[in-house]
Write a structure and sequence with these properties.
With 122 residues, the chain is α+β, with helices and mostly antiparallel strands. The protein is built from four helices and eight strands.
Length: 122
Amino acid sequence: MTAQGESVLPLTAGADAAAALAALSGQPVTGTAVQVLSVPADEGFWVGTSETERVWVQLTGEAGESPYQVTEGDSVDFQGTVAAHAAGFAAQVGVDDAEGAAMLDGLGQHLEVAKSAVTLSE
């Protein structure tokens, strides 16, 4: 998963992950064969390699369910944008403490991806 030619996931586990991700805010991001770690919300999920190296994907677009139903363990491809969010974002999208709310709010950034732009990786 890259934005501006830089791998995004290692930034999420760094000492100053929020600042590192903020530098990419508004930039396009491309994910290829990215592992879905968990799907705690209807229109959002965690992708990455571990509990410390992960980023939230928030699905956007028309109301209703996504054309492809993302499930834990899937490998997905997508194109989206790195987007900033305020404290409390985790609660707004339905992520609680056990599902990583503190990390999500702490990162201050997530990926916004159109529902139609997520596909199962082949």
